[in-house]
Structures are given as structure tokens and as C-alpha cells.
Amino acid sequence: MQRKRPVGSEWSKFVDAWGKADHDGKVLLAEKFKVSYDLAKHWISDFRAEVPETSSGRYSLEELLSNRSATQLDFVSFDLETSNLQADFSVLLTASIKPFGKEAMVFRADSYPNWKKDRSNDKAIVVDIANELAKHAVIITHYGTRFDIPYFRAKMVKHGLPPLPQMFAVDSWRIARDNFQVSSRRLKNLAEFFEIGNKEGVEGGLWMAAAYDGSKEAMDKIVEHNVIDVEVLEKLACLSFPYLKFIRRL
Fold it and tell me: Which of 173, 110, 179, 182 is CA-nearest to residue 143?
């Protein structure tokens, strides 16, 4: 009787080992699972047909869970607040990283020594954010694949930092775009419609006061806004996950 394909963690280990092995290693792996090489190859072929990998970097959840490159296999919500939408015309003001079910970790530029005299140099805060992000496996953002991630990458390159390790990204904006027919996919509108939080609008004067005047009061309000964003984002992600069809490599 032909053995059925393994499932769960056993299958994840098989896929991971198969991907790393040469031909002889694949033969030995098949023997270890007490099947022929041709059957093992057939398993992999069927699996790839079920969840094709494309040039866009799409991965199935099984493939994601078989990866162990990050320090912690977990999900974090991530949001940036910046003085402008372009990395070469702005500084990074605050960032919040919220591990699932835990308090948000806040990074704010005015807590660094160079804020008063060298505000245009945001290297220190970028380094700290990168070090924290590198500890996690999956980053959840809203419109982050279009803004937060490219912006942060540009800052990392500017400051001579190495790329983040192999990680994965979930963008709730993309999920909303593909699945929810609503008037706006902005986080504020989705939060109100799904009743998952009270996200305030952006008051431009606060960002001006923080970036140009170094106002602590303005930064306090921006940080509050930043934390609310990741709290709402975590709730939106929980609502969105049933519609998640694949994981993108970051």
C-alpha cells in the first residue's frame, strides 16, 4: 500500500530537507521516509502545483513555518511616523513594533542624544528599529509594502546597515483591497467600519512641530497616534487572516 504524504511538522521538515539536499541526499531522504525516490519527487511536485512559488516571492504557510532563520517565529505589527513620505527628504520620527498580544515597543527620535543638535541624522533610531525587527519572522503592516518597508529600507542603506534577515510580510491593505468592497481601504476607515478602534486623523501641524521645532508635546501626540495604529492593525490582521492566501517574502 502506497504511503500517504506526511502532514504538519513532519511535512515541513521533509520540504525543508528536500530543498537543501542534492540528488543523493534526496534519495537518502526518501529512504528515511520509507518511500521510493520517485514517490517523494511526486509529493514535492504535487505540493508545488498546489502552492506555486512565483517571482513575487510567494510562500505557503507550510513553507513559512518550516523556516527558522528569524530569532522568534512570531508576528509583529509595525508602523512608522516620518516627517515626509520620501526617505531622502525626511527624518524618521517614531516607530512602533507590537508583538502579538503584547505591549507595543516604541522608538522615538527625541529620546536620542543627537535630537537637539543633529536632528537630520536618524541613524541611531534606524539601527535600533532594524535590530528589533530582525528578531521576528513576520511583519504586519497596513500599506507597508508600499511605504513603511521601502522607506525603512532606504534609510538602512543610507546609514550603511546590512539588509534584514529572511523575513515575511503581511499587508492588511492588500488583503482589504482584494477582499473588502468598501469606500476606502485606509486604516482609519476600516477601523471604523469593523469597529475595532478609534484611529484619529493626521494633523499635519504636529509633524511640522516635531520635525522642525523639536516639540516634545507634538512628539508625545505622534507616539500616541503611532501606538494606536499598531493596536488597530493587530485587530485588523486578526480579521483579515482568514483571507490570507500566501505569505510574501519581505
Answer: 173
Pairing of strands 168-171, 72-82: unpaired
188 and 89 in contact (C-beta within 8 Å)? Answer: no
Smallest CA-to-CA distance from 97 within 202, 204, 210, 234 is with: 234
CA 148 to chain centre: 10
Pairing of strands 72-82, 136-141: parallel
Of 191, 183, 185, 170, nearest to 248 by C-alpha is: 170
Structural domain 72-249, CATH architecture: 2-Layer Sandwich (3.30)
Question: Nearest to residue 75, comparing CAs of 148, 171, 135, 140?
Answer: 140
pLDDT (tens digit per residue) in 139-180: 999 999 999 999 999 999 999 999 998 889 999 999 999 999
Of the candidates 121, 115, 95, 116, which has an alpha carbon nearest to the alpha carbon of residue 227? 95
CA distance 175 to 155: 27
Whole-angstrom distance, CA of residue 96 vs CA of residue 230? 7
Model pLDDT for residues 13-46, shown as the tens digit of each residue? 787 787 777 788 888 888 888 888 878 887 776 6
